[in-house]
Amino acid sequence: MNILIGDDHLLFREGLCRLLTQLSADATFTEAGTFNEALEFAQGEQEFDLILLDLQMPNWPGFSGIQEICEIQAGTPVVIVSASESQADVRAALDAGASGYIPKSSSVKIMLSALNLVFSGGIYVPPAAIHGESTAPAGGGGGVSSGGGGGGNTPALTQRQRDVLRCLREGKSNKQIAYELGLSEGTVKIHVTAVMRSLGVRNRTQAVIASADILP
């Protein structure tokens, strides 16, 4: 497994290298201390299996930089590992094509679980980015809520989450859902993750099956 780590703190990069050997004992690491270095490695002949990037490292061009690296290393999951836990940063990173966003405050167990989710084709969103939107005004940008109330075993989904689930049942992609509901793709990804958490499922197929008990 070839892994590219972009972070301006040497000590953190070294810590990640040691941590990631738990995912793959024979992993090889390429380290970059600036965004320009990370971009140069991504543009080289080496194909990576995973790319980890920090935000706001030297030469950071903004979230368009994530999109650029995603396009260059097409098919390679790009995961943000950042000290920022801002919902705006999470959304912007996902909009730019990131496959996950892991706060640096996360435990080792959470970080490994998040990366395993990414490798299985999922998208990791920190719980705070989901639950933190539960207080958003209704009818706004489509805040994500874990739901509440509602007796019995039926998961309590917001109307927006039901809309997203209905689109999933129709086999629509995140891009199609975003267009139909007037949301960004990043916001759709967050909604999909929240829906799967609420339903207790691990993928879209299981969510569609579970929808039979929820949607008319």
UniProtKB/TrEMBL annotation:
SMART domains: HTH_LUXR (SM00421), REC (SM00448). InterPro entries: CheY-like_superfamily, EvgA-like, NreC/VraR/RcsB-like_REC, Sig_transdc_resp-reg_C-effctor, Sig_transdc_resp-reg_receiver, Tscrpt_reg_LuxR_C, WH-like_DNA-bd_sf. GO terms for biological process: phosphorelay signal transduction system; regulation of DNA-templated transcription. PROSITE patterns: HTH_LUXR_2 (PS50043), RESPONSE_REGULATORY (PS50110). Gene3D superfamilies: 3.40.50.2300, Winged helix-like DNA-binding domain superfamily/Winged helix DNA-binding domain. Residues 150-215 form the HTH luxR-type domain. One of its GO terms (molecular function) is DNA binding. The modification 4-aspartylphosphate is found at residue 54. Residues 138-153 have a biased composition (Gly residues). It holds the Pfam family Response_reg. Residues 136-156 are annotated as: Disordered. Residues 2-119 form the Response regulatory domain. Keywords: DNA-binding, Phosphoprotein. This is LuxR family two component transcriptional regulator. It comes from Nitrospirillum amazonense.
